[in-house]
Design a protein that fits this description.
Dihydrodipicolinate Reductase, domain 2; 15 strands; alpha/beta; binds NADP nicotinamide-adenine-dinucleotide phosphate; 515 residues
Length: 515
């Protein structure tokens, strides 16, 4: 635990973000899929948190659209219920009421022209009533089948046109395609009806706070920059571990698996933030251009290297019987070859990182939920400790802990008190919550708020989505053609397959422990 920082004043440095304390632009927030899980668990609580922080203006309204067969009053009741259940404080009555009374609903099919015509007329009425100035944000909170078709229908009705200085934006959730070809198809389709600056591809995994924490840690602290390169760093390890299994997402997961579902998006985002050069500013394209260079520098994993550079695993029943195996999960084929775990050795072809492996792993039903970046430094020359068993000396490691709690840990060796020269492995730990308090958030607040202000820094650009597929595409194609090849197993609630350990052991390394 970090010491309580009693005498440590926290200096707040005004960044460009200071201006973001204002309320967002007036707008109508259109939720396409307003009866779904994403809406109730994340979008509505995030809007609630924004309202609490006074980041939503009075000229704000919500217009929901879904198949669900309830009317407007029914939607408002569901909305209030979701806020009571999923907001951190159980939903303060006056805030719930503020949101409730400015929420509207259309129950219809996305494929029903009459329903969409109603959407157009209701949007115009609500816009006028609240003085939203024609601004509208369309959130595709629905199944991927509609990711292109629905925007096309909206465009045909003129709903995506930005007339008279108003803005019209579309937020789209991942998956942004299932491979490079389908990602490109989606991008090209959207580009025909929307400008790139109207498309917000959300990757909610890293909230803005986390991204800025990583950038601030790297670029606001002079002591790390000189050692943040191949001369001092031996390897980088990125872990995105989940304790949950496939839950109710089998239909989707069976088609995607861990490699497609997590690597070209969430995992690469962490690689980019760890490896990128300092941007010239925090302006959206300045940051994204640097991220893009990392995606371009990622070496493609070719089929002949797959057995050395990739481990795919699938969870089996937990040793204590507390969880079923993946193949026993509802909706999963009993002979499924979908991987629920993947570990990769990646390399970046650039000056800073040449020769430094980036070991990344992600999986379900691992020991615990844990997202972290660990930088392992090269060993010290050791001349002073010839008598010490060198294998017991651990390399220095810096860990940026991201989930479930954010913090930074530096591990190093120190002398154990006593007459003998013995070294012990010790850690310095900083937890954001100890210094700055625990803030309750869903991870969507700043993303929604940024979108309403037109700040695209945290959203994936079309070229980033397509380039991210490059590094893994040959492997993805290979596994599509050889589905069971090399698939190994690991018991639920373990640290993953032993083959992933062997991948590092072969190079004289080992994984940082999960959690
Ligand atoms: N759930 C999460 O935690 C989560 C997290 C991150 C990302 N996402 C992404 O968010 C998106 C939505 O996920 P979800 O979990 O909310 O899905 P979901 O629970 O299945 O909700 C889908 C929504 O779309 C509506 N819908 C489906 N077909 C329709 C049609 N033909 N006409 C009108 N409405 C239709 C559904 O209405 P009815 O229910 O009334 O039929 C429902 O409101 C997905 O892309 C997912 O990958 C979800």
């Amino acid at each position: 635990m970090a010491d309580t920082p009693v005498n440590t004043p926290v200096v707040t440095i005004p960044a460009q973000e200071a201006s973001s304390l204002r309320a967002s632009d007036p707008c109508v927030f259109v939720i396409l899929g307003a009866s779904g899980d994403l809406t109730k668990r994340l979008l509505l609580p995030a809007l609630y948190n924004l309202a609490q922080q006074k980041r939503l203006p009075e000229n704000f309204a919500i217009l929901g659209y879904a198949l669900a067969d309830y009317d407007e009053e029914g939607f408002r009741q569901k909305l209030a219920g979701a806020l009571h259940e999923f907001s951190c404080d159980g939903g303060r009555p006056e805030l719930v009421e503020w949101i409730r009374q400015r929420s509207y609903f259309i129950n219809s099919d996305f494929e029903n022209p009459e329903g969409l015509a109603t959407l157009k007329s209701r949007l115009a009425e609500i816009d006028k009533k609240y003085g939203a100035g024609g601004n509208a944000l369309f959130y595709l909170a629905t199944i991927p089948r509609f990711f292109l078709e629905l925007p096309q229908r909206l465009a045909a009705l003129g709903l995506l046109r930005q007339d008279n200085g108003c803005w019209r934006r579309l937020i789209i959730e991942k998956p942004f395609g299932r491979d490079r070809a389908t990602a490109r198809e989606l991008n090209l389709g959207l580009a025909k009806i929307l400008g790139e600056d109207q498309i917000y591809r959300i990757d909610h995994y890293l909230g803005k706070e986390t991204v800025q924490n990583i950038l601030a840690f790297r670029f606001a602290n002079g002591i790390f920059e000189p050692i943040w390169n191949r001369r001092y760093i031996d390897n980088v390890q990125i872990t995105v571990a989940e304790a949950v299994g496939v839950e109710l997402r089998a239909a989707y997961y069976e088609r995607f698996g861990a490699l497609r579902d997590m690597v070209p998006n969430h995992v690469f985002q962490l690689v980019e933030l760890t490896a990128m050069e300092p941007p010239i500013s925090f302006e959206a394209n300045a940051v994204r251009n640097e991220q893009m260079k990392i995606l371009e520098a990622l070496q493609w994993i070719e089929p002949e290297n797959i057995s050395e550079c990739i481990v795919r695993g699938q969870y089996t029943r937990a040793n204590d019987g507390s969880a079923v195996g993946y193949r026993e999960e509802p909706g999963v084929k009993p002979d499924s070859n979908t991987e629920t775990y993947v570990a990769l050795e990646l390399h970046l072809d650039n000056w800073r990182w040449a020769g430094v492996p980036f070991y990344v792993r992600t999986g379900k039903r691992l020991t615990r939920r844990d997202t972290e970046i660990t930088i392992r430094f090269r060993r010290a020359p050791m001349q002073l400790f010839r008598e010490t068993d060198i294998s017991r000396l651990s390399p220095n490691a810096l860990t940026l802990q991201i989930q479930p709690a954010e913090g930074v840990q530096l591990t190093f060796d120190a002398k154990v008190p006593g007459p003998e020269m013995q070294l012990g492995h010790v850690a310095m730990h900083f937890a954001y919550a100890d210094y700055f308090g625990d803030v309750c958030r869903t991870g969507y607040e700043t993303l929604l708020y940024d979108c309403m202000l037109g700040d695209a820094t945290l959203f994936r650009r079309a070229d980033m989505v397509e380039t991210a597929w490059n590094a893994v595409e040959p492997a993805v194609e290979y596994f599509d053609a050889h589905p069971g090849e090399g698939l190994v197993t690991y018991p639920a609630f373990s640290a993953g397959p032993k083959e992933a350990d062997h991948m590092l052991n072969r190079a004289g390394r080992n994984w940082h422990a999960i959690g």
